[in-house]
């Protein structure tokens, strides 16, 4: 069992579910224990990269993770931490907004390091494109953080090929990752690649050429929402469609035929794509994390027909 695919994709653990409630300002020992159990389960299936953001559970995801690190000597050196900055949640009458100014990047990264109780982030992602960002300011902040040893590599999230190039022109360090929502359910990333000459392809809402651009430039494609929030794997779901039910049935059958789980089959569908997609696993439950173990193997054993059958079932329509 390995968390690494033969085309370069790997499983990443998403920490958004750690730290308890988004609405509560505090966390307790139970939240730290839950984080420790999730981290152990993720490491148990070979995951080494942990995905954070300063805003997850309003900073508490980083805080509980920091507590686990402090209680586990040697753990920090065995894993990689990925952080994000750039989103300011609504607070005190100020609406939610984005801020990738030099000052905001420096302040947010320093606060994340404190909460995580670590000296450095292995990767810093710019969380969302801020229309007011000045590439030279991003370059100045990132250059300073790298010179101080606080950030080792830079990536982005929710960005198009054009936005990546625009930023890259000002940077001295290569952009190493782009994290986007990509799953069998949110399949605009692959719909747009097929419907290139049809209006639906543009309506799909995924920037054309971004997948290919990232592959060509060696930028890791990280997929969030990869478990489709449990839509096909047993989450209590208000109104599943016929397409949802058919997709869930196909995943269950693939799992049974291949001695794996529906979760691994779902992630395997993403990992079979030759772009080498790295799914970010967002469950905080150890048993659900463990169920993702066979994703790389599922990708290898999934046939072209099985891959297309899953896609057509989930899209609820035959290929054009
Ligand atoms: N860059 C960005 O803009 C961005 C945006 C969103 C997320 N992310 C990252 O991506 C990670 C994953 O995102 P995500 O959490 O939206 O997507 P996900 O991995 O598809 O879904 C995980 C969520 O679905 C629930 N779930 C999954 N299977 C379930 C089932 N069978 N029954 C009940 N609930 C089930 C999990 O609950 P349990 O915890 O109870 O298992 C968890 O809340 C996050 O942790 C974060 O690191 C990044």
UniProtKB/TrEMBL annotation:
<feature type="domain" description="NADP-dependent oxidoreductase">
    <location>
        <begin position="10"/>
        <end position="299"/>
    </location>
</feature>
<dbReference type="InterPro" id="IPR050523">
    <property type="entry name" value="AKR_Detox_Biosynth"/>
</dbReference>
<dbReference type="Pfam" id="PF00248">
    <property type="entry name" value="Aldo_ket_red"/>
</dbReference>
<dbReference type="InterPro" id="IPR036812">
    <property type="entry name" value="NAD(P)_OxRdtase_dom_sf"/>
</dbReference>
<dbReference type="GO" id="GO:0005829">
    <property type="term" value="C:cytosol"/>
</dbReference>
<dbReference type="GO" id="GO:0016491">
    <property type="term" value="F:oxidoreductase activity"/>
</dbReference>
<dbReference type="InterPro" id="IPR020471">
    <property type="entry name" value="AKR"/>
</dbReference>
<dbReference type="InterPro" id="IPR023210">
    <property type="entry name" value="NADP_OxRdtase_dom"/>
</dbReference>
<protein>
    <submittedName>
        <fullName>Predicted oxidoreductase</fullName>
    </submittedName>
</protein>
